[in-house]
């Protein structure tokens, strides 16, 4: 069992510490006190909670095969000849995309424009995060 501290749960799923504490207080996410009195959540419980929450907000049939959607704001657009490099800040993530200049122009991409980075990758590297308590 991998037990994770509240701030780490919040960071991993992209919400505030207060939101996670509210879910715990409401009984939506089980937690217990670990050494030193800190609230800890079982990693498997976090995974189940995230899946249930995602299913509850499912908008119906998908219109795209890409499942990784990062909503953010365009922070930079560099146009050079036929190519444009677009940078989006999506929460804590910086996403950079290279596309045709025509595509960037057609989308009206400029700094300050809300945009969604849709990622469909054939190769994704997964690393183990150093959070939680070793059991």
The secondary structure category is alpha+beta
What is the name of the CATH topology of the largest domain?
A: Multidrug-efflux Transporter Regulator, Chain: A, Domain 2
Give start-end ranges of low-pLDDT stretches: none
Q: In DSSP terms, counting alpha (H) and pi (I) runs of 4 or more, how many helices?
A: 4
Major β-sheet, in short? 4 strands, antiparallel
Number of domains: 2
**SSE series:** EHHEEHEEEHE
Shape: elongated
Between the first and last Cα atoms, what is the distance in angstroms? Answer: 7 Å
Query: Any idea what the radius of gyration is?
Result: 19 Å
Portion of residues in beta strands equals: 25-35%
CATH class of the largest domain: Mainly Alpha
CATH architecture assignment of the largest domain: Orthogonal Bundle
- Quaternary structure type: single chain
Mean pLDDT: 87
State the helical fraction. 25-40%
Give me the side-by-side strand order of the main sheet.
Answer: 6-5-4-7
Organism: Agromyces indicus
Protein name: Helix-turn-helix transcriptional regulator
InterPro entries: HTH_17, Mo/tungstate-bd_C_term_dom, Mop_domain, SinI_DNA-bd, Transp-assoc_OB_typ1
Keywords: Molybdenum
């Amino acid at each position: 069992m991998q037990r994770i501290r509240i701030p780490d749960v919040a960071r991993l799923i992209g919400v505030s510490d207060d939101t996670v504490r509210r879910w715990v207080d409401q009984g939506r996410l089980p937690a217990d006190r670990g050494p030193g009195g800190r609230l800890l959540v079982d990693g498997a419980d976090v995974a189940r909670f995230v899946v249930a929450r995602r299913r509850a907000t499912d908008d119906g049939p998908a219109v795209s095969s890409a499942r990784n959607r990062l909503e953010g704001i365009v922070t930079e657009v560099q146009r050079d000849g036929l190519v444009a490099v677009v940078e989006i800040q999506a929460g804590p993530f910086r996403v950079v995309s290279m596309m045709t200049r025509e595509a960037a122009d057609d989308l009206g991409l400029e700094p300050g424009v809300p945009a969604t980075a849709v990622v469909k990758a054939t190769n994704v590297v997964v690393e183990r995060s150093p959070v939680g308590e070793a059991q």
